[in-house]
Amino acid sequence: MFDVLGPAVIESSPWRARPNCSPLMTPSHRKRICLLGATGSIGESTLQVVADFPDRFEIVGLSAHTSAATLARLADELKPAAVCLSGSETPPGEAGGSASAWFSGEEGLAKLVEACEPDIVVVAIVGAAGLTPTLRALELGLPVALANKEVLVTAGALVMDLARRRGVQILPIDSEHNAIFQCLAGHADDPVRRVILTASGGPFRGRTRAELAGVTVAEALDHPTWQMGPKITIDSATLMNKGFEVIEGHHLFGLDVDRFEVVIHPESAVHSMVEFVDGSILAHLGVTNMYLPIAHVLAYPERLENSRFDALDFTRVASLTFEDYDREVFPCLGYAYEAARRGGTWPAALNAANEIAVERFLAGEIQFSGIPELIDAVLQAHDGVAHPGLDEIRRADAEAREKARENARSLGLSRK
Ligand code: NAD
Ligand code: MG
Q1: Do 88 and 68 form a contact (C-beta atoms < 8 A)?
Q2: Topology of 18-168 in CATH?
Q3: Which residue of 52, 134, 194, 355 is 20 to 30 Å from 29, comparing CA positions?
Q4: Of residues 158, 133, 157, the one with CA closest to residue 146
Q5: Whose atoms come closest to the Cα of 176: which ligand?
């Protein structure tokens, strides 16, 4: 059995420390942004915020994985200092557009972070691939606006420790964590009783286990309230996304995993809540659009005037409802709690198994019910390490992926 990660409250959690600049300080220059994962859903919303506030922000670095043509178009338009096409082993060449430095491959992402000399790095890459450039940004003492939760699931203790040692902040873009961050502002030293993470429930809320077995990829991708990339949309349908968010919150806010409760809130208007020991509960509400948390972290500690979206109309929301989730139908959330309690390499193995399971489901190779089956099998075989270094985490990630691929083949074959 492995130790639970960390004490109940880590007093020196870096985001609790001083902000990067005083609220009274006006930026003397436009904030230089390195955007990793520019062609995805979060990447596009980030570009929208930058386009809306050209006197506040400029893009100095961009990455895409395989969309060379889009990267070239963005580079021509935004004139960043450097770009990276991470899914290619050869330099982007023409695809680099008018950028002065071009990089390629996974290691190119870390080079991009350094070469473009940003003030902040937005990590909007999907999956554990976000880990290396996030670590590089922190090593360089650069604040990170983090959308990618897999980074903290895979190596949260190492990432937070590095941020603490370098004295830099990790600003959460994930809407729940951005909400918690805002609820805790001014209360960083107040004892928290629990954090209530809200979940829309995804497209399969209220279904039975039998009804879920044969759902199609298109049904699983049809999220009721959020428009997101395919991987996180499937994670939302299995509720693994919420499990990852428990682990993400545990690391970001230095609170024990069992202080996080998940409640289904289909309207997605309350983005999360914090209850203090005196019973006071602070909630964050807003429209369901990632533009808001992105604008919040890019401008932080200031706030930008928002004229793009109408305010949340309470007369149209009419009611805010909350309900429990079905632990039998959505076992992935329980797996995440268990992996987080065990700590060490367990969450990295959980994430790696999930990445493969989701990839295989999206490719039509396994059924929806095969996702938790596959993850369960990988975790049962996982030989965890209690206090891993980066190499042990990478090994656990690689082994879990390999095991998941093997299991996916036999799961796929057994269904044929
Ligand atoms: P997406 O699939 O729309 O975009 C992913 C981006 O990452 C693309 O630019 C792609 O080119 C790049 N990419 C893909 N694989 C890569 C790899 N192996 N190496 C480097 N780059 C790679 O995903 P998204 O919905 O924008 O989500 C991005 C991250 O933000 C995820 O970790 C997700 O969990 C998190 N997040 C997303 C939302 C949302 O509303 N979309 C909300 C909260 C958190
Ligand atoms: Mg979220």
Answers
A1: yes
A2: Rossmann fold (3.40.50)
A3: 134
A4: 133
A5: 2
Residue-wise pLDDT for 224-242, tens only, equals 888 899 999 999 999 999 9
Residue 21: pLDDT over 60: no
Q: What is the 3-state secondary structure (H, E, C) of 217-280?
A: HHHHCCCCCCCCCHHHHHHHHHCHHHHHHHHHHHHHHCECHHHEEEEECCCCCEEEEEEECCCC
- Joined together, the tokens standing for residue 206 give 């209220």
Q: What pLDDT was estimated at residue 80?
A: 96
**Alpha carbon of 153 to ligand 2 centroid (Å):** 13
- 128 CB within 6 A, ligand 1: no
Query: What's the CA gap between 39 and 58, in Å, rounded?
Result: 17
Buried b (16+ CB within 10 A) or exposed e, 265-291: bbbbbbbbbbbbeeeeebbbbbbbbbb
* Rounded mean pLDDT, 322-346: 97
Dist CA 177 CA 190 (whole Å)? 17
Greatest distance between any 2 Cα atoms in the chain = 64
Nearest CA to ligand 1 atom 36: 147
User: 38 with 126: CB under 8 angstroms?
Assistant: no
Ligand 2 centroid to Cα of residue 176, in Å, is 5
**DSSP three-state, residue 62:** strand
